[in-house]
Write a structure and sequence with these properties.
By secondary structure, this protein is mainly alpha-helical. The chain has 2 domains: 76 residues; 161 residues, hpI Integrase, Chain A (Orthogonal Bundle), CATH 1.10.443.10. It is 56% helix and 4% strand. The protein has 13 helices and 3 strands; from the N terminus they run αααααααβββαααααα. It has a 3-stranded antiparallel sheet with strand order 1-2-3, with no helix packed on it. It starts with a helix and ends in a 6-residue tail after the last helix.
Length: 275
């Protein structure tokens, strides 16, 4: 499918300069090229009304906003690259704020007890779940980790989303679980997490592991990590740094959890709330 020169330049920019993942780049290409194909015009020659007319079919506001995010990123690139004199930015659709699903520490501990750690696969599953909760890493970052990324009880995340790298502390119990698992496997691989063939563990396999023991996706453990920090009194900017969020706005969703926790504490402890 032939795409405009400006769109080609944008895709090269997010590939080389922004260093986005292949999955993200493909999503941008698909979303933006479909608009050009449907309207039979280069994106740069379309105004916001024309773009919105091509998106009215998307009733799901989250899907719509994902596509609008790609469109705004393209227009911003064109303006900064002087391909366009107009700085176009289309407003996102309003969606209700939903609290992220999370598990408590006790929920996770109760599930970990069920893992048979007499086998190397059991040790791997135990270590993986502990690590995800102890680090708050994205599953893509977790699966890309190598042995060189660990230094004592610190983790260097080099394979971060976009260009961001970060160093975070890891609980000793998670480090010990990983060491115990690595002693059991017979393969000398660079990466940490492997399947029964000795190949790198896939996202689907990681999803099956957390589903099996916790009934959730790996991403819920990232939310659980952040929630535990916030309710424990951690500063929002520290949590932002630990999670690798580019913007504090992304992290602010956890303030709703903090407010809930404060409210429930007052309701349970303040004498005026007791009957």
């Amino acid at each position: 499918m032939k795409i405009s020169n400006e769109l080609e330049a944008f895709l090269e920019y997010i590939t080389v300069t922004k260093a986005l993942s292949k999955k993200s780049i493909q999503a941008y290409r698909t979303d933006l090229s479909l608009i050009e194909e449907e309207l039979k015009k280069p994106l740069i020659k379309l105004d916001s009304n024309a773009v919105l007319s091509s998106l009215v079919k998307y009733e799901n506001k989250r899907t719509l906003n994902r596509k609008l995010s790609a469109i705004n990123a393209f227009f911003d690139f064109c303006y900064k690259s002087q391909f366009s004199d107009d700085k176009i930015k289309i407003k996102f659709a309003k969606i209700p704020k939903l609290l992220p699903k999370f598990l408590s520490y006790n929920d996770i501990q109760n599930s970990l007890i069920l893992i048979d750690r007499t086998t190397w696969i059991g040790k791997r599953d135990y270590a993986l779940i502990l690590f995800l909760y102890a680090s708050g890493t994205r599953i893509s970052e977790c699966l890309d980790l190598t042995r060189d990324d660990f230094e004592d009880e610190w983790l260097h995340i080099r394979h971060a989303k976009g260009e961001k790298e970060r160093i975070i502390p890891i609980a000793k119990i998670a480090i010990d679980a990983i060491k115990e698992y690595l002693l059991e496997i017979k393969w000398e691989k660079e990466f940490i997490w492997c399947n029964y063939k000795g190949d790198k563990l896939s996202r689907i396999s990681a999803y099956k592991i957390t589903q099996k023991y916790l009934g959730v996706s790996p991403h819920v453990l990232r939310h659980s990590y952040a929630t535990s920090l916030i309710t424990g009194g951690a500063d929002l900017r520290v949590v932002q740094e630990l999670l690798g969020h580019a913007s504090l706005l992304t992290t602010q969703i956890y303030t709703h959890i903090q407010r809930q926790d404060l409210q429930s504490t007052v309701e349970a402890c303040h004498p005026m709330n007791k009957k």
